[in-house]
Amino acid sequence: MSDKLVFYNAHVCPYAQRAYIALKEVGAEFDVVNIDLLNKPDWYKDVNPELKVPVLATEGQNLAESLVIVEYINDRFPEKNLLPKEPIKRANIRFVIEYFASKVAPEFYKLLMNFKAENAKADYEKNLNTALVRLDELLKQQSATGPYFLGEQFSLADVAIAPFVIRIHTINQTLLNGLELETVKSSPRLTEFIKALIARPSVQETWIGDKELVTFLQKRFIDKE
């Protein structure tokens, strides 16, 4: 395929970072158009009527939704094997992505939306520790050793989860004054997984930066009247 990929991104968005990581991992050639989520240009509605990121322009179409895009990237660059051929591994990858999206990531957003509420931080810590117990079990069921979900192989599970892991880590270290989650401290497998995702070159290369993220979150959520 010879058409030029155009990636519509917002550095603050974890869903956009999923697609960005996948593009980096497969070594794709692409142009990046950054969208300001707090001041979206009028023309962007012609790219995505829902005005969301990410979008990947390819083959004459604009693909939306992060998991749709990352699976397309895998299908277009199958030699990188981000989604293995074995049906059971593919199923397990999709399951852990769904688990993380439904049980772990929501606690991040609940905290931001209710940051100044009396019990927000305590509830966040309690609920996140509980959700991470099951994530730790899923990691060990898939592979007793890491560092990634499948073990040594980096996959779409890691692509999908990494943007949230690095954001949760940043929030814990900054806005929550170095919070250390008990579930993470007590699980070598989970600790290794988190450290490996944060350190992955494709994650670091597409990361907004700790200071920039905190500034955005304070403006968008915490200090919003």
Automatic annotation (TrEMBL):
Entry's Gene Ontology molecular function annotations: glutathione dehydrogenase (ascorbate) activity; glutathione transferase activity
UniProtKB keywords: Oxidoreductase
Residue ranges annotated for the GST C-terminal domain, each copy included: 86-221
InterPro entries on file: Glutathione-S-Trfase_C-like, Glutathione-S-Trfase_C_sf, Glutathione_S-Trfase, Glutathione_S-Trfase_N, GST_C_5, GST_omega, GST_Omega/HSP26, Thioredoxin-like_sf
Superkingdom, taxonomy of origin: Eukaryota
Entry GO CC: cytoplasm
Pfam family, one: GST_C_5
Domain GST N-terminal: 3-81
Membrane-spanning parts: none
PANTHER family cross-referenced by the UniProt entry: GLUTATHIONE S-TRANSFERASE OMEGA, PTHR43968
This protein's name: Glutathione S-transferase omega-1
Organism of derivation: Rhizopus stolonifer (Rhizopus nigricans)
